[in-house]
Design brief:
This protein is α/β, with parallel strands linked by helices. It has 3 domains: about 250 residues, 3-Layer(bba) Sandwich (FAD/NAD(P)-binding domain), CATH 3.50.50.60; about 100 residues, Flavocytochrome C3, Chain A, domain 1 (Alpha-Beta Complex); about 100 residues, Fumarate reductase/succinate dehydrogenase flavoprotein-like, C-terminal domain (Methane Monooxygenase Hydroxylase, Chain G, domain 1). The protein contains 14 helices and 26 strands. A hairpin with a 2-residue loop joins strand 10 and strand 11.
C-alpha cells in the first residue's frame, strides 16, 4: 500500500479546500484529495455571489445583524464577528490578487438577496460567481510549488492514534489502489450532504462524506437538523432540480401561486426577499394548498435586456429546458440545498480531535445558526479556510508509528445494491425529513436508517457497502437531531411543535458512542 507524507492533507476541492490549500502552502507540503475533479463542488455551482460589507453605506456590524436575524438565535456572535470582519478583509485581498468581480462604470455591482438589508453581494460572470471564484482560486493554488492534487481519490477513513490524527486512508479510482496519506493535520473541506435527498440542487458528489469520516473518528457533529431548502429550484418532472439564484428575486422577480397572486407580500415585510426558511416554508404551504407540485417565478415585468445580461448562464440553461426566463412563468419548488450544521469546530476551525479541522459547508463554525444568510457560504470558505490552515501549521503531533489498515476494494456487483439503498434513503429523507416534520414520520425514518446501518459491518472494506452504511449513519444523525429539537426554528419546522422554544436556544451535539449534548449559544 502506497504511503505518502505531507504536512497538511485537505479533503475536498471547493472554495474552502482551495482557500486552505493556498494558505497552507506557505507553511509546508500540501495534498488536496478529491473524489472527483478539482472543479466539481457546491462552490463551483454557486450562482448568487459572496457577501461582504464593502459599500460606503454598509458596515460589518450591519452584515452581522442581518446574519444573526437570519440565524434565528442559534448563531454564535463571536464566530459571526470573525466572519463579517475578516470576510471583508479576505474579499479585498481577493480583489488585490486579481479576482474580477463584476463592475459598472468602475464600481462593483452589488446585488441584493433575501435577509440582507443592504446591497452587498459581489458577483462575477453575472450569475457564475462560484465558477469564476473557484477557478480563480484554483489558478492561484496551481502556482504553489508545495501543493499536489489527487483527483478521483476518495477518502475512506481517518487514521488516528491516541486521539491524534495521523492521516487518511484513500482509494484511487484510476489505479484501483489504496493510498495512505500520513500527515500531522487533516482539513475536511468535503462540502455538504443535500444529495442524500431525492430532490436537491447539489452535484452528485455532495453526499456528506466529511460528516461520516469525522463521526466515525469520534468528532462532534452539531446542528445537523437544520437543512436549508432553496426556495426557487426549477421543477420539471423527471429532471434534476436546477437552482434559480436568489439574486433573481433580488432584482425584482415575483413568486406567484396558481391564482397568479403574489402571496409573499402578506407573509413578510420583505416579501420575496424574506429569509430563505420563511420563503421555502411559504412556498411549501402554497403547494399543499393547491395540490400542485410547484408554484411560479415571474420576471415578465422586468427589463428583459438587463435580466438576460445579468443572468446569462441561467437564461441559457432555462432555454435548454424550453423556458424563456423573461417571458414565461417558471415552475419552481424548494429543493434540499445547504447543510447548515456540520462537524463542530472552534473559532480556528479545529474539532475536538487533535489535528482534525473542518471548514466550509462540512463545518459547523457557529456562523450559520438555524438558517444561513444568503451568500455567506463562500465568505465562510475564505475566512475559515485560512484559519484552519494557519492553526494546522502550528499543530504539534507526536510522531507515532503509522498503523496500516486493511485495504479497501471495489466490487462492481455491489453497485446495484448501493443504488437500491441510496434511492430508498433519498425517498425517506424527502418524505420524512423535508421542509415540515413530525414525530411519527421522524421516528419511522430513524428506525429504518438504524436498521440499514446495523445491516452492514462497520469494519467492511468494500467501497459500495461502506457508502451504504455511511449514508444510513448520516440520515440517522439528522433524524435523531430533528427528533430532539421539539420546536420550529429556521430550517427545522415541526408541525407538532410550531413555535420557537427558548429552551432550545442551544446547539445539539452528537458524538459516536455518547449521548447527545446541548451546548449554549455564545451571545
Amino acid at each position: 500500500m502506497q504511503v505518502l507524507e505531507f504536512d497538511t492533507v485537505i479533503i475536498g476541492s471547493g472554495l474552502a479546500g482551495l482557500s486552505a490549500a493556498y494558505k497552507a502552502a506557505n507553511f509546508g507540503t500540501v495534498a488536496i484529495v478529491t473524489k472527483s475533479q478539482l472543479d466539481t463542488s457546491n462552490s463551483y455551482y454557486a450562482q448568487g455571489g459572496i457577501a461582504a460589507a464593502i459599500a460606503q453605506d454598509d458596515s460589518p456590524l450591519q452584515h452581522l445583524r442581518d446574519t444573526m436575524v437570519s440565524g434565528r438565535g442559534i448563531c454564535d456572535r463571536d464566530a459571526v464577528e470573525i466572519l463579517v470582519n475578516e470576510g471583508k478583509e479576505r474579499v479585498l485581498e481577493l480583489i488585490d490578487e486579481g479576482m474580477a468581480f463584476d463592475k459598472e462604470n468602475d464600481d462593483f455591482v452589488l446585488g441584493l438577496e433575501g435577509g440582507h438589508s443592504k446591497r452587498r453581494i459581489l458577483h462575477a460572470g453575472g450569475d457564475a460567481t462560484g465558477k469564476e471564484l473557484t477557478c480563480f482560486k484554483l489558478g492561484l493554488v496551481k502556482e504553489k510549488a508545495h501543493v499536489q492534487a489527487f483527483e478521483y481519490v476518495a477518502a475512506i477513513r481517518l487514521l488516528q492514534n491516541d486521539q491524534y490524527i495521523q492521516g487518511v486512508q484513500t482509494y484511487d479510482f484510476k489505479t484501483k489502489e489504496n493510498i495512505i496519506f500520513k500527515s500531522k493535520a487533516v482539513i475536511l473541506a468535503t462540502g455538504g450532504l443535500s444529495r442524500i435527498f431525492e430532490r436537491s440542487t447539489n452535484p452528485h458528489t455532495a453526499t456528506g462524506d466529511g460528516i461520516a469520516l469525522a463521526y466515525a473518528a469520534g468528532a462532534q457533529i452539531a446542528d445537523l437538523e437544520f437543512i436549508q431548502f432553496h426556495p426557487s429550484a426549477l421543477y420539471v418532472p423527471g429532471k434534476d432540480a436546477y437552482l434559480i439564484s436568489e439574486a433573481v428575486r433580488g432584482e425584482g422577480a415575483w413568486l406567484l401561486n396558481h391564482e397568479g397572486e403574489r402571496f409573499m407580500k402578506d407573509i413578510h415585510p420583505l416579501a420575496e426577499l424574506a429569509p430563505r426558511d420563511v420563503v421555502a416554508y411559504s412556498i411549501f404551504r402554497q403547494i399543499q394548498k393547491s395540490g400542485k407540485k410547484h408554484i411560479f417565478l415571474s420576471l415578465k415585468h422586468l427589463d428583459k435586456d438587463k435580466i438576460r445580461k445579468r443572468f446569462s448562464n441561467i437564461d441559457k440553461h432555462l432555454k435548454e429546458y424550453g423556458f424563456d426566463m423573461t417571458e414565461d412563468l417558471l415552475p419552481i419548488s424548494p429543493a434540499a440545498h445547504y447543510m447548515v450544521g456540520g462537524v463542530h469546530t472552534n473559532l480556528d476551525a479545529e474539532t475536538n480531535i487533535s489535528g482534525l479541522f473542518a471548514c466550509g459547508e462540512v463545518a459547523s463554525t457557529g456562523v450559520m445558526g438555524a438558517n444561513r444568510l444568503a451568500s455567506n457560504s463562500l465568505l465562510e470558505c475564505l475566512v475559515f479556510g485560512k484559519r484552519a490552515s494557519e492553526k494546522a501549521a502550528r499543530q504539534n503531533t507526536p510522531d507515532f508509528e503509522l498503523s496500516i489498515p486493511e485495504p479497501v476494494y471495489v466490487d462492481s456487483e455491489n453497485e446495484q445494491l448501493f443504488l437500491q439503498y441510496q434511492n430508498e434513503m433519498a425517498l425517506m429523507m424527502a418524505e420524512n425529513l423535508g421542509i415540515v416534520r413530525n414525530k411519527p414520520s421522524l421516528q419511522k425514518a430513524l428506525d429504518r436508517f438504524t436498521e440499514i446501518e446495523a445491516s452492514f459491518d462497520p469494519e467492511v472494506n468494500e467501497y459500495n457497502l461502506i457508502k451504504i452504511r455511511n449514508t444510513a449513519t448520516i440520515c440517522k444523525l439528522i433524524a435523531q437531531a430533528a427528533l430532539i429539537r421539539e420546536e420550529s426554528r429556521g430550517g427545522h419546522i415541526r408541525e407538532d411543535f410550531q413555535k420557537e422554544n427558548p429552551d432550545f436556544k442551544v446547539h445539539i451535539l452528537q458524538q459516536k458512542g455518547k449521548n447527545y449534548q446541548l451546548e449554549t449559544v455564545r451571545e
